Amino acid sequence: MSYTYKGRVYSIKSPVKSISVNKQNIVVNDQNGTKLIKFTNVNDSKNFLDWIYQV
């Protein structure tokens, strides 16, 4: 599955091993490795979390 934010595509492969949240930054550790996603506001990071928990 992939998530597009501001023109960049982030590929997330299940299972997600861990998620770390620090305000606007989210680190996702999945089967492909660790990815840092920097958001410009808290609402965007919350939308990402809603998306990843639904999948």
TrEMBL record:
> What is the protein's given name?
Uncharacterized protein
